[in-house]
């Protein structure tokens, strides 16, 4: 086990996934707390993660800078870090409500379609339903869960009907739920 972690500490992608696990879901696993806006003290994060994977400030900055999904942000003074969205713990990442485009997309696995078309998209263990700006991004997201399916979401109509939308710093669109009547499967 110890050897495996030493090898994974050389892989910034794997460290990034571990950081997401900590900053989105379980900060207590390394003995840190998040403030009400999801921020963690950088020094405390580095100290807490060091038992599993020694990481210096420069390496953390490189992980944040090169993350393909732009999952993290530093505070203006660089003393705090947080994930931009995707939390399962109650935090307010200070998103402003914005008017969405006419359509957004959601990637999922084919096996989930019966439940989705019965219940709509639900946030499940997260604070929001995540929507993509393009069908291509949604396809990639769906592929992570099995045979991918892309759903087109009538977000313009939803907004007209009073649903709130937010856009995270990294371009992910968020809403609390999407009723099935606003969904159609892309073929």
UniProtKB/TrEMBL annotation:
Domain of life, per the record?
Bacteria
**InterPro entries in the record:** Ptrans_KptA/Tpt1 (IPR002745), RNA_2'-PTrans_C (IPR042081), RNA_2'-PTrans_KptA (IPR022928), RNA_2'-PTrans_N (IPR042080)
Pfam families, per this entry? PTS_2-RNA (PF01885)
- For this UniProt record, give its keywords in alphabetical order, as a comma-separated list: NAD, Transferase
State one molecular function term (GO): tRNA 2'-phosphotransferase activity
EC class (word): transferase
Q: Which GO terms describe its biological process?
A: tRNA splicing, via endonucleolytic cleavage and ligation
Record's keyword annotation contains Transferase: yes
Query: PANTHER family, alphabetically?
Result: PUTATIVE PHOSPHOTRANSFERASE, TRNA 2'-PHOSPHOTRANSFERASE 1
Query: What is the protein's known function?
Result: Removes the 2'-phosphate from RNA via an intermediate in which the phosphate is ADP-ribosylated by NAD followed by a presumed transesterification to release the RNA and generate ADP-ribose 1''-2''-cyclic phosphate (APPR>P). May function as an ADP-ribosylase.
- The protein's name is Probable RNA 2'-phosphotransferase
């Amino acid at each position: 086990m110890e050897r495996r972690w030493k090898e994974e500490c050389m892989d910034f992608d794997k460290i990034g996934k571990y950081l997401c696990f900590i900053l989105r879901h379980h900060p207590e696993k390394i003995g840190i707390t998040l403030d009400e806006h999801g921020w963690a003290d950088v020094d405390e994060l580095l100290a807490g993660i060091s038992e599993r994977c020694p990481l210096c400030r420069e390496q953390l900055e490189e992980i944040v800078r090169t993350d393909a999904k732009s999952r993290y942000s530093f505070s203006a003074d660089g003393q705090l870090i947080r994930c931009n969205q995707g939390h399962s713990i109650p935090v307010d990442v200070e998103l402003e409500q914005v008017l969405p485009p006419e359509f957004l997309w959601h990637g999922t696995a084919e096996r989930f379609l019966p439940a989705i078309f019965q219940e709509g998209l639900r946030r499940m263990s997260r604070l929001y339903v995540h929507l993509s700006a393009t069908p291509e991004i949604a396809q990639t997201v769906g592929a992570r869960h099995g045979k991918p399916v892309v759903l087109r979401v009538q977000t313009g109509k939803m907004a007209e009907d009073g649903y709130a939308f937010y856009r995270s710093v990294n371009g992910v669109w968020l809403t609390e739920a999407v009723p099935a009547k606003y969904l159609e499967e892309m073929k």
